[in-house]
Amino acid sequence: MSTLERVVEALAGISHTVQKPRDGAVAIEIEASVVPQALAALRDRAGFDTNVFVTAIDRYPAEPRFTVCYSFLSTAHNDRVRVQARIPGEKPHIATITHLWPGTAYSERECYDMFGIVFDGHTGLKRLLMPQGYDHHPLRKDFPHQGIEPDRLYREWDQRRRDRSPLRSESEA
Questions:
Q1: Alpha-carbon dihedral 88, 89, 92, 98, rounded to 10 degrees
Q2: Which domains does the chain have, with CATH numbers?
Q3: Using one digit for the tens of pLDDT, what is the confidence trace for 113-154?
Q4: Of 140, 170, 136, 128, which is closest to residue 152 (Cα–Cα)?
């Protein structure tokens, strides 16, 4: 049985569209509302036991703006499948899959940090690469590459660090 046949059989009863990727890999698109059910079916019925990554594509100014992309590996069959789900740009969110693949937590955190996509049900969703007070999501196409003040966070952090430092003698001040 081919990878495509296994995937289609596993997703029986779940709305999906088979895509024609340029590299020949099996790729499907599903609705964001069925992500947990569809991906559980791929894990349980088609043997995709490893989540390789979760990322996103920003299609600004198009709507739906974001495409959340998942890649899975079946170690038993030595094959892969890519899954995509589109979500709107206004308050983007999608269900987490950390209950299916716990290691996905970091990929989802990175996606949240870089694109601002909220993963509903993710228990530790916080910034991974950027500082907590950072106001932007750098991989968004509307990221202000010019005009942000990169030193603001550093100055705030440095001031807090100085305020917490041990008391200095007056000769050091």
A1: 80
A2: 3-143 (3.30.460.80)
A3: 999 999 999 999 999 998 887 888 999 998 877 757 667 777
A4: 136
Find out whether 92 and 111 touch, Cβ atoms under 8 Å: no
pTM above 0.70, yes or no: yes
Q: What is the pLDDT of residues 78-116, one digit of tens each?
A: 999 999 999 999 999 999 999 999 999 999 999 999 999
Residue 75 near residue 99, CB atoms below 8 Å: no
CB neighbour burial string for 70-98, b if at least 16 within 10 angstroms, e if fewer: bbbbbeeeebbbbbbbbbebeebbbbbbb
**Pairing status of strand 26-30 against strand 50-58:** unpaired
Task: Tell me the C-alpha distance between 43 and 94, whole Å.
Answer: 19
Q: Give the chain's radius of gyration (CA, Å).
A: 21
